[in-house]
């Protein structure tokens, strides 16, 4: 792991390979470990996988619970570490990538977003409110049970890895400060959708969706595709929301094609 100070946070990131720069942005309750398979497999690219604000080994700083702040963190990382790059984002990470692509098309050559939403509904707001309340004590049985339930709901076939994935996610969440901050940012997409901003994205976008994603179904992908001036869709078969756990080989191949496109 390497470290760099961007804005008010000390950002930890994993770096691998050589070639054109590609940045991998993880989802809520994850860290750089999400992308270990891809960083090893796609070593023809110079890949960077930072831990988001308050996740993994990155400090929390003064989070304000906005997508804009998380997007500015990404842009600062690009300016400081990689230079203009392809950005790959999963779920929360995909939403951050799209925000940043609309803000600074000069820094993001292409966006590849997996399991991503640009707007959330009432049920999602209630979900985030419940998880934010439970994350006040990430050592509590209530939070651990919720994390286990969320992880199980995100899997289609990798249920044999459930305990391992839950343990990794709990470690990434840590004291919960970054988790709460990011959950608040996602919750705000109800009142302040990202969708209208997508018309400002002028660089290519590939939207990747999983066949059995209950959290970001085809409807979420369609909303993004309809709003973008230049985008294409790729489906990952036999996978739920946590598609990189369910079908990592298909995700890797889809990313290889999307990055090289």
From TrEMBL:
Q: Please list the residue ranges annotated as the AB hydrolase-1 domain.
A: 22-253
What keywords does the record list, in alphabetical order?
Answer: Hydrolase
**Record-linked PANTHER family:** HYDROLASE ALPHA/BETA FOLD FAMILY (PTHR43194), PEROXISOMAL MEMBRANE PROTEIN LPX1 (PTHR43194:SF2)
Q: Hydrolase: is it a keyword of this entry?
A: yes
**Record's Gene3D superfamilies?**
alpha/beta hydrolase (3.40.50.1820)
Q: Which InterPro entries match?
A: AB_hydrolase_1 (IPR000073), AB_hydrolase_fold (IPR029058), Carboxylesterase_BioH (IPR050228)
What GO molecular function terms would the record report?
hydrolase activity
This protein's name: Alpha/beta fold hydrolase
